[in-house]
Every structure is written in structure tokens, then in C-alpha cells.
């Protein structure tokens, strides 16, 4: 049975950049995600930049998950292995269901570009309160890979045989 629609379903998507150094002028990754999602016909619900603090990240993402105005949360940054990278630890406890395949597929696609360095990516995806949450690395290239290689299709109601839209609307 197909879980695809015949028509586009615009989603309300929030974008969070996690960075201790970026601001609106230098946030190329967040800007890429905003341009990609609006270019695909979705709506930007909100955009924010936060320092890499587990509790600040968790508080904002919790608010977005609880909001009926947000159906998807895209997070860029904080997924590496430095002492300041806490995005997965901030987000994982909020998820009702982890979408293991998102991180696995992201690393598979990235392996083609970066080789074994992809093992250091802690890309994460999941569902919480009918909201999809995806954590991507902070580089613009990684956001491009995640959007073009996975998210553009999985956030498109017309993608067959299935996509995430049915779980969000």
C-alpha cells in the first residue's frame, strides 16, 4: 500500500543552527536549509541560532515539538565529537521514536564523499508528538547532502512508496 499523496503538502519547518561562533551573517548551513525548504514549497515556521548548550537546545526543540505550528525541526551543528557537541544528547531524550535509518543512510551517502571520516557523524532522526526531528552536522555540505539525499524526498507527500508526511499531518 502506498503512503504517498497525489499533491504537494507544504510543511511548517523550524530550523535551528547550533554553533558557538555563527551568527545570522555567517550561518551558511541554516541559510541553505531555509532556502532548500522554501524552494521545495514548505514554510519556514521559525529559525534560531543557539550556542552549543544541551539544555538550551532541549528547551527550544521541546517548544517546537509541542507547537501545533511546527511539523518538522531541522537542526544543523553540534553532532561531532568535541566536548561542546551535545545536539544528539539534547535531542534523543525528546524523541518518541528514533528513525535509525536516517543516521544510517546519511552516513552511507556521506561515505561516498568523505570515506571513513563519516563514522564521526552523529546524525540523528526521530519522531516526537507528530513532529519529525532531524539533526545534521554543521557544515553546509553536510546539510546539502542530508537535504538532497534524504529529506527532500522524505518530506514530500508525493514520494513513493512512503514518506514522513503521513506521520506529521
TrEMBL record:
One GO cellular component term: cytosol
Gene3D superfamilies (UniProt xref): MoaB/Mog-like domain
Keyword Nucleotide-binding: yes
Record domain MoaB/Mog: where: 14-158
GO molecular function, one term: GTP binding
GO biological process: Mo-molybdopterin cofactor biosynthetic process
Pathway assignment: Cofactor biosynthesis; molybdopterin biosynthesis
Highest taxon, organism lineage: Bacteria
Stored SMART domains: MoCF_biosynth
UniProt keyword terms in alphabetical order: GTP-binding, Molybdenum cofactor biosynthesis, Nucleotide-binding
Pfam family, one: MoCF_biosynth
Known role: May be involved in the biosynthesis of molybdopterin. Can bind GTP and has low GTPase activity. Can bind MPT, but has no MPT adenylyl transferase activity.
NCBIfam families with a match to the protein in the record: moaB_proteo, molyb_syn
Sequence similarity: Belongs to the MoaB/Mog family.
Name of the protein: Molybdenum cofactor biosynthesis protein B
Species name: Oceanimonas pelagia
Gene name of the record: moaB
Amino acid at each position: 500500500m502506498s503512503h504517498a499523496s497525489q499533491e504537494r503538502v507544504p510543511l511548517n519547518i523550524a530550523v535551528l543552527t547550533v554553533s558557538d561562533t555563527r551568527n545570522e551573517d555567517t550561518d551558511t548551513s541554516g541559510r541553505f536549509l531555509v532556502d532548500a525548504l522554501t524552494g521545495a514549497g514548505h514554510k519556514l515556521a521559525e529559525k534560531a541560532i543557539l550556542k552549543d548548550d544541551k539544555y538550551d537546545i532541549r528547551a527550544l526543540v521541546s517548544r517546537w515539538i509541542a507547537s501545533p505550528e511546527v511539523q518538522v525541526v531541522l537542526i544543523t551543528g553540534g553532532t561531532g565529537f568535541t566536548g561542546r557537541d551535545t545536539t544528539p544528547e539534547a535531542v534523543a531524550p525528546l524523541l518518541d521514536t528514533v528513525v535509525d535509518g536516517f543516521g544510517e543512510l546519511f552516513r552511507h551517502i556521506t561515505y561516498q564523499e568523505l570515506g571513513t571520516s563519516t563514522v564521526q557523524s552523529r546524525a540523528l532522526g526521530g519522531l516526537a508528538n507528530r513532529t519529525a526531528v532531524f539533526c545534521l552536522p554543521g557544515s553546509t555540505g553536510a546539510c546539502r547532502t542530508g537535504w538532497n539525499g534524504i529529506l527532500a524526498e522524505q518530506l514530500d507527500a508525493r514520494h513513493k512508496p512512503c514518506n514522513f508526511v503521513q506521520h506529521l499531518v
